[in-house]
TrEMBL record:
It comes from the Bacteria. The keyword Membrane applies. The keyword Transmembrane applies. This is Fimbrial protein. Pfam families: PilN. Residues 40-84 form a coiled coil. GO terms for biological process: type IV pilus assembly; type IV pilus-dependent motility.
């Protein structure tokens, strides 16, 4: 009987199969490494793009923060200017009123009468003067009451005295001021 040694053929086939499996494993390994490398590169590119986008956004934030600071500075300046304008308007109003009040007193002062003092009396004026008669005092009070610069006018005191040999009446009147807009 003839004997055929089949072992080397099996072993040869086994070696070929092992070589094919090894080659397949190497191909799979390289494919996996290539896929991993490709995925890593894609992630790195995505990361770089996001970092660049983030840097752009941070730059925009810095620019906008500078703009916000500038706007706040202008708002502060605007507020200061508005306060100054308001103060100036107040001062103008307060400057006009005393001049107008003194002008009204001067225009309503009858002949034969003169004033010796005008003082602030809490919302009004205390006017002290002298006249040759009570009729002049009454006319002065009526004139002031008709004036828009004044509200009510009250006679506080009236007394007769001798001045340089003539009889005069010394009087004190309190005149409430009218509204500032008038």
């Amino acid at each position: 009987m003839i004997r055929i040694n089949l072992l080397p053929a099996r072993e040869a086939r086994r070696r070929v199969e092992l070589r094919h499996q090894l080659q397949l494993a190497v191909v799979v390994l390289f494919a996996a490494l290539g896929g991993g490398a490709w995925g890593y590169m894609a992630q790195q590119n995505e990361l770089a793009a996001r970092q660049q986008e983030l840097a752009g956004i941070e730059e925009e934030i810095k620019r906008l923060e500078a703009v916000i600071k500038e706007v706040q500075k202008f708002e502060t300046q605007k507020s200061v200017m508005e306060k100054k304008v308001s103060a100036i308007e107040d001062i103008k109003l307060k400057q006009r009123r005393p001049a107008r009040v003194l002008d009204e007193i001067s225009r309503n002062l009858p002949d034969q009468m003169w004033l010796t003092s005008i003082k602030d009396a809490g919302g009004g004026l205390q006017i002290v003067g002298k006249s040759f008669d009570n009729v002049g005092i009454a006319a002065f009070m009526e004139n002031l009451e008709r004036s828009p610069a004044f509200g009510s006018v009250e006679l506080i005191e009236s007394k007769s005295e001798l001045l340089q040999g003539r009889q005069v009446v010394t009087f004190t009147v309190v005149a409430r001021l009218g509204s500032p807009g008038e």
